Amino acid sequence: MRCFRHIATAGALFASIANATLQIIPGATWTATNTGKHIQAHGGGMIKVGSTYYWVGEDKTDGSAFQNVNCYSSTNLVEWKYEGALLSRTSSGDLGPSRVVERPKVIYNKSTKKYVLWMHIDSSNYGEAKAGVATGDTVCGKYTYIGASQPLGFQSRDMGLFVDDDDKAYLLTEDRANGLRIDLLSDDYLSVKSATYLWKDSIEAPAVIKKDGVYFMFGSTLTGWDPNDNKYSTATNIAGPWSAWKTFADSGSKTYSSQTNYILPVGNNFMYMGDRWVSSNLMRSTYVWLPLTISGTTASMKNAVNWVVDASSGSMTSGPSENTYEGESATLAGGAKSVSCSGCSGTNAAGYIGGSSAGAVTFSNVQSSATTRTSIRVKYLNGDSSQRFADVSVNGGATQRIAFIPASGDPNSSVLNAGLKSGTNTIKISTSDGTWGPDIDRLMVPQS
Ligand SMILES: *[C@@H]1O[C@H](CO)[C@@H](O)[C@H](O)[C@H]1NC(C)=O
Ligand SMILES: *[C@@H]1O[C@H](CO)[C@@H](O)[C@H](O)[C@H]1NC(C)=O
């Protein structure tokens, strides 16, 4: 059974094994610090203001129809606070019931001092194919919706934005009838001015970056909610010529089961942001964020179970080695008991967590060689179709609520970000409100 997968082949970005610190754990449940729920920012983008990152994406709590364009903030790219919705469902119109509002992206116009939000606006059967725009005075405040149209008269589905070094901004837009387009926006960023480039290829989920004078366009082929091997094309002029499409993740991995939504510059490096869509229950879709290596005209990306990003310098290093602690071997109290679980390590898990008798599992021998704030992977099962929750206390401290999106068969991970002290630590998992928590297969705790 695999406990920890070393990242031996990922090249320079993974040159050193980092000290334990907060980690990005792709595909896990990511709990917002102030909601206790799985982050809802799908198909999103990122904008940095000062030293804070703002993550803007789709709320899929109740399925595919538009609910909110959500905004979360973080200074370390791991711990995210819910700030509010930029736009929310209205009683009618473009943002009304049963509407499609997807792939929101925000850029800032220094002259008008407006944050400008572009998004895919559509009817529930995707028959309208428009790009919509809204503006805000603060990055995570309420935005004013302006309207939507087909840019230059062409269909527009998945979209992205790119601001070049000269402050010119571009809409990246999928025109199903003709291909993938780059269109120049007007100076105020509020309308589309002219066509810049067209690929006559069927590519969606577009994202552009530029490094050392080379533009990279990333995107996926059209396989609906299912992932495919995403691709990129390069150019030294945004108007082309652009190169043929190439893959950047391991061939056949379907981009590690994800679809591009944004590429984030961090320092001089880049982080891939992808969605691992779960079409049957979109709220449980997860986020696959990985270091993207850009060199010359080449982009490449390796998978990782966990990895460490320095949100200010952009350094990206491999995750720490972990110790494993089995739920069924920990102290079970208040009705919690060992339950059999074929997909679990040790074929058992700690079950009956929470409930009316506040079942609890306590791991009292959790070792750390450092006093550090770190990310612990809680391997769990949740056979429901909605998320469960647990209240976690480390070394007897205040509880924090973490979420567990549905997972049956094989355990999934939920990320617990917590402070450990050097030596022996105690981690207690229970619920305080009578609800059932997840079954806990094991904890995977950084050694140092
Ligand atoms: C949960 O784990 C299963 C099995 O490892 C995996 O197939 C699935 O993609 C995971 N779910 C999510 C939402 O990542
Ligand atoms: C913002 O909008 C103005 C027009 O109002 C334009 O002149 C300017 O170049 C835009 N971009 C930036 C980055 O300020």
From TrEMBL:
GO BP: carbohydrate metabolic process
Keyword annotations of the record: Glycosidase, Hydrolase, Signal
Span of domain CBM6: 323-446
Pfam families with a match to the protein in the record: CBM_35, Glyco_hydro_43
Highest taxon, organism lineage: Eukaryota
N-terminal signal peptide: 1-20
Any GO molecular function: carbohydrate binding
Protein name: CBM6 domain-containing protein
Similarity-based family: Belongs to the glycosyl hydrolase 43 family.
